[in-house]
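I'll show a typical protein example:
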Amino acid sequence: MVPIIAVLITLVALEVALRVYHAATRPATVPVSQVAPVPLHIVTDAPYLYGLNPNHPDISSQGTRDDEVAIPKPKGTFRVLVLGDSIAYGSGIPKDKTFPNRLESSLRERLGSAEVVNAGVSGYSPYNELQYYLAKGKEFEPDIVIVAFCMNDVVNPRLHWGDAPGVRFPDDAIPNHDYDVNHILPLIQKREQEKQRSPSVLEHSELYRALAPRLSRLFARKAETKVPTYITGEDDISIEVLVDKSSPESRWLRTMYDRLGAAVAANGAKLVIVIFPLAYQLDDNYPFMPQKQLREYCDEKSIPCLDLLPSFRQQGKEKVFLLNKSPFYDIWHLTEAGHDLSVREIERFLGDQKLLPNKRSE
C-alpha cells in the first residue's frame, strides 16, 4: 500500500509542477480582434480551389510567388511556367532560393532574356494545376510548362483543406471515390465528433498531455516492422497505390496529366514532368519506386520526364531534405542545397532534351 501511495504522491507533484511551469511560461493571450494574421492561402470559388494570398509579401499581384511579368509576353522572351505544390512553392525556403527562382537566374546567364514563373501553391494536386493552367497559367504564354510531381499529389484533398471555410471539392478533384466514401468521409465525421465531446479527466491533465504523444510515438516505432510507405502526414494512404498502375489513384493521375498535356500542347508549349522523390526513397534497397511507372507513362505520351532520385541519392537525404530542420520530420521539402541541385539537374535536362533556345535572345 505504501508504494502505491508514494507513486500517487509523485504523480500529483509532477502534475502540480507542470501546471505551475506552464502557467509561468505561457505567453499572454492577445485578443482575437488585435491579431492580424497573414495566411498563406485564401479560399476562392475558382475551379482550381485555392489561390495564394495577395497580401503575403512574397506574392505578386498576379498570384505567383514571383515578380510580375509582362502579359502578353514580350517578343524574344523565353518563358517557363512552373506548376506544383509546396515543393515548387519552396516551403521553408526564401523566395530567391527556390528552384524556380534559381532556374530563372541560370537561364538568363545562358540565354539572355528568360523568365521562370513560380506558380506553385502549397497543397495543390494535379487537378488544381490543370485548372490553374486553364484559368490563368496559359495567359503567361510559356514556352515550357514544368510540373513538379511529388508522391503526395494523389492524396485526398479533404484532409488538407477541409477546415477552410467555403472550399468545394469537385468530383474530378477526388483521386479515389470509393476511398473517399468509405474511409475519408467517415474519418472526418469521427474527428468532428471528437471535437464536440467533452475532454476526459485524463485529457485535463498536464502530465497526460505531456506524456501521451511521446508514448504513442514510442509504441508506434516498436510496432513498425516494414519500410515506410506513407506519402502524407494526414492519412495512411500508401506509396504502393502509385506502384499499382491499375489503382484509382494512378489512373486519376494519368488522366490529369493527359488533360494538362493536351492543353499545354494546344497553346504551342511543351510539358515537362520533374519527379521529386520522398526522403525515405533514398535509403538503400528501398522497394517501392513509382518513378518507374511514371517514366513509362511519359515515354508512352512522349513527355520529357526527369527523375531526380539518382542525383538526390548521390548527395544523401540529410543534405537534400529538411528532415529534422522542420517543425516535423519533413521527408517532402527540400533544403537550399536540394533546390540548388534541382536547378542544375533541370537545366541540364532541358538542354539535353533540346528544349532551350540555341543562342542568347537579343
Summary: The longest strand covers residues 144-150. The chain has one domain: 41-178+205-352. Residues 25-37, 217-225 have pLDDT under 50 and may be disordered. Residues 41-178+205-352 form a domain with the Rossmann fold fold (CATH 3.40.50.1110).
